[in-house]
Amino acid sequence: PFLPTVMRWGRVTMAQYAERFQDPFMRRAFATLQYDIPDVPVLVNLVFLAGCANRTMGWPMGGSPAFSERVARRYEELGGELHYRASVERILVEGDRAVGIRLQDGSEYRADRVISAADGRTTIFDMLQGHYIDDRLRAYYDKPQERQEFGMHIAYGVKRQLPPEPPAMTLLLNRPVMIAGENRTRLDVELFGFDPTLAPEGHSVIKVSLPTGYDYWHQLRNESRERYEAAKADAAEVSLAVLEQFMPGLREDVEMVDVATPLTVERFTGNWRGLQAWSPEDDGLTALFKEVASTLPGLQDFYMVGQWARGSIGLSTVAEGGRSLIRRLCKEDGREFVTQS
User: Fold this and answer.
1) Does residue 61 sit in helix, strand or coil?
2) How far, in Å, are 116, 192, 205, 258 from residue 253 at the CA level?
3) Higher-confidence residue: 289 or 211?
4) Residue 13 per-residue DSSP state
5) Judging by beta carbons within 10 Å of its beta carbon (0-12, 13-18, 19+), is residue 10 exposed, middle or buried?
6) Pairing relation of β-strands 114-116 and 302-304?
7) Which pLDDT band holds residue 1 (cuts at 50, 70, 90)?
8) Is residue 327 within 8 Å of residue 337, measured between CB atoms?
9) Cβ neighbours of 13 (radius 10 Å)
10) What's the whole-model pTM score?
């Protein structure tokens, strides 16, 4: 019964809806609501708001480390083993069936099934040497996004209790500022004072998120490490100057600064070009719901989970994808899917 509503708001972007307002401020501000992605359909924001309203979505206390550590503990309680700092070089295939993995140190592990939560391009083109791919997947990875939302993060550890502001704000600037080679007319700010686990007592974390591109930072890093680090420091300084206009005296309270670029993401996570998953080039609403590659054509007993399988990002999205896969495997094996609250 809700399909007409879903279809309607899946076709209208936040920027398009903002044009309906007569007030100049609302026309400028509405498109930036929630995640400041004017081109995202209104439906996406409605889904998030609905999830918060019915308490099926929220912030995991402690952030992503606490979330993943809880999953890891449960896995080990069930008898699973985790091997850290064990980079996979190759997925072993026999007769078009995944049978295990080979690590970079040459050791091999055999398995009934292989599940990859790693970077999609690395999995498909390196670990599997591009043998199991169709035209749609090839077209997807042939057209990576250069400039991506949330591509750069500037975090400040501050010795102050954050004021009772919303946990996320878009600061609209009267005059543009230059950050990472781009003129910025607004800053997206997240205030983490609501989670006391992220900082010592009496302290808080403030984060600025910015869209940026991989090539800009890659070129700087190739020219010299000094230029790369200087650009990061400059971005942190300019952002702090803007923040201080809204939070007087903030500079004196800053005790930690940490800047992450797409190169940082690539180094820590292995994600090719530090990328987030991007939606496939499908028309209309289907791009929001269509998976990219939970399985690969012609390869049995192999599965992918995470953002590169789902084509969308976020803890809740990838966690749901992993849960769905286990449910699927239980069904294939004729076993009951059970959970523990």
Assistant:
1) coil
2) 43, 15, 11, 15
3) 211
4) B
5) buried
6) parallel
7) confident
8) yes
9) 19
10) 0.87
